[in-house]
């Protein structure tokens, strides 16, 4: 078993336990992918949940009601995309109201719903492989990004119900909810409610970095990839909404935190909202030069928030003081190699500029370096 690392806590990065909703943005930006047919015309009114683009495999739905006003270039998940721009009319017109599904679920119906609502990876795994172990991953990958922990706490009924539905219909021997042993609120919540689900177990793991990653979590329980399915808290909640309520994923939970924010929080947002609009309308930032780190300090990336749009995979934004830590020269201490979970020599990569394919971009080498060298930039070939 690999030796994983306990990270130091930084209180300036913790967030308020309150949640903010920002579900009526002025504009929504939806990326236009190649070979998608556009189904709306300029100045046409669209409804919340209306399909605005499609190809033979996927459909893109509008998260708001509004008017399609044209296109603009934006950055989504690190790539520049031409996006459809929908301006909110704040009417939230819906074609169909959401209703609880009355259909009796079975294996085939669940698989078909998973395909219909774009959980294709999970659908094909359940369809093609015999799954013996189902892990519901309630551990956030990144320190100070707390979306999974929040969702576990606030949607425990939905998470337990959906886990049990999958366990029963796919005849899964071991179904487990995994929580960090430091997450006392969730431990209490799940211990109080698990009695309704005698076939699901709660497993606690140490508060160590990388245990939120599916690969390391499987390794922690010595489970094989071939018969194990790991589903994170946000995805199991979205699956519940799709399977039980026929609801598409149009909203997401993200964490906004850091020493340059007055009050860091978890925010419920519409997918397609721009960070710029969200920050301006919801958060008060402190005076001084700021650096915006997308998706967390360990694996995230510094960005200019102006053109960045929130996608379904966005975890959050950590706002720190710009240039706070000066980079020094390497002192050959060897710590970057010692800490690497996959035994890549980050210093060698920095010296030779030869990128290693084994690097999983976990950020531990940059975290441990006493000279504050941003080794990840070398590992990603950015320096
Ligand atoms: S970022 Fe890459 S080289 Fe650095 S510790 Fe992680 S896996 Fe190893
Ligand atoms: S941890 Fe930093 S200082 Fe130490 S060997 Fe690696 S790059 Fe050099």
Fold and architecture overview:
- The structure is a single chain.
- With 383 residues, the chain is α/β, with parallel strands linked by helices.
- 26% of the residues lie in helices and 24% in strands.
- The protein is built from 12 helices and 17 strands.
- The strands form 4 sheets. The chain has a 6-stranded mixed beta sheet, covered by helices on one side.
- β13 and β14 form a beta hairpin.
- α1 packs antiparallel against α2 and α4 crosses α7.
- The protein is globular.
- Bound molecules: iron/sulfur cluster (SF4) (2 copies).
- One iron/sulfur cluster binds next to α11 and α12.
Q: Strand order, biggest sheet?
A: 1-14-13-17-15-16
SSE run? EEEEEEEEHHEHHEHEHEHEEHEEEHHHH
pLDDT < 50 stretches: none
The hetero compounds bound to this protein are:
iron/sulfur cluster
Instruction: Bin the strand percentage.
Output: 15-25%
Number of helices: 12
Q: Number of DSSP strands?
A: 17
- Based on helices, strands and strand pairing, what is the structural class? alpha/beta
Average residue-wise pLDDT: 92
Radius of gyration: 22 Å
Query: In whole angstroms, how far apart are the ends?
Result: 33 Å
Helix content: 25-40%
List the helices and strands and how they pair.
Layout: E1 19-22, E2 27-31, E3 37-38, E4 45-46, E5 51-54, E6 59-61, E7 66-76, E8 79-88, H1 107-116, H2 120-128, E9 133-137, H3 147-154, H4 156-169, E10 174-180, H5 184-193, E11 200-205, H6 214-220, E12 228-232, H7 233-245, E13 251-257, E14 265-270, H8 275-282, E15 290-294, E16 301-303, E17 316-321, H9 335-339, H10 346-352, H11 364-368, H12 375-379
Parallel strand pairs: 1-14, 9-10, 9-12, 10-11, 13-17
Antiparallel strand pairs: 2-8, 3-5, 4-7, 5-6, 7-8, 13-14, 15-16, 15-17
Helix pairs in contact: 1-2, 4-7
The structure holds iron/sulfur cluster (2 copies).
């Amino acid at each position: 078993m690999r030796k994983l690392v306990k990270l130091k806590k930084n209180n300036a990065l913790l967030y308020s336990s309150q949640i903010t909703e920002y579900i009526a943005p002025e504009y929504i930006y939806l990326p236009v992918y190649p070979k998608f047919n556009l189904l709306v015309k300029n100045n046409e009114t669209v409804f919340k949940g209306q399909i605005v683009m499609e190809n033979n495999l996927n459909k893109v739905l509008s998260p708001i009601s509004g008017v399609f006003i044209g296109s603009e270039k934006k950055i989504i998940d690190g790539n520049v995309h031409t996006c459809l721009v929908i301006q909110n009319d704040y009417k939230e017109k819906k074609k169909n109201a959401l209703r609880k599904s009355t259909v009796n679920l079975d294996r085939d119906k669940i698989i078909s719903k998973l395909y219909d609502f774009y959980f294709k990876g999970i659908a094909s795994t359940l369809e093609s492989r015999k799954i013996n172990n189902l892990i519901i991953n309630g551990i956030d990958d990144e320190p100070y990004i707390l979306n999974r922990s929040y969702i576990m706490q606030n949607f425990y009924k939905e998470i337990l119900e959906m886990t049990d539905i999958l366990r029963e219909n796919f005849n899964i021997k071991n179904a487990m909810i995994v929580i960090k042993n430091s997450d006392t609120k969730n431990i209490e919540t799940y211990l109080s409610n698990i009695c309704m689900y005698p076939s699901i177990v709660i497993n606690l793991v140490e508060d160590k970095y990388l245990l939120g990653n599916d690969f390391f979590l499987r390794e922690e329980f010595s489970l094989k990839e071939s018969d194990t399915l790991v589903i994170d808290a946000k995805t199991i909640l979205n699956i519940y909404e799709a399977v039980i309520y026929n609801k598409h994923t149009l909203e997401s939970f993200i964490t906004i935190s850091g020493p340059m924010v007055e009050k860091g929080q978890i925010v419920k947002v519409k997918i397609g909202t721009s960070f710029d609009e969200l920050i301006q309308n919801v958060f008060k930032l402190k005076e001084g030069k700021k650096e915006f780190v997308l998706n967390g300090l360990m694996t995230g990336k510094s960005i200019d928030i102006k053109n960045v749009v929130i996608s379904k995979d966005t975890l959050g934004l950590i706002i720190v003081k710009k240039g706070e830590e000066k980079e020094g020269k390497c002192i050959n201490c060897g710590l970057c190699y010692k800490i690497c979970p996959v035994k890549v020599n980050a210093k060698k990569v920095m010296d030779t500029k030869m990128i290693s394919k084994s690097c999983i971009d976990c950020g531990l080498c940059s975290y441990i370096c006493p000279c504050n060298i941003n080794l990840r930039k070398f590992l990603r070939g950015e320096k």
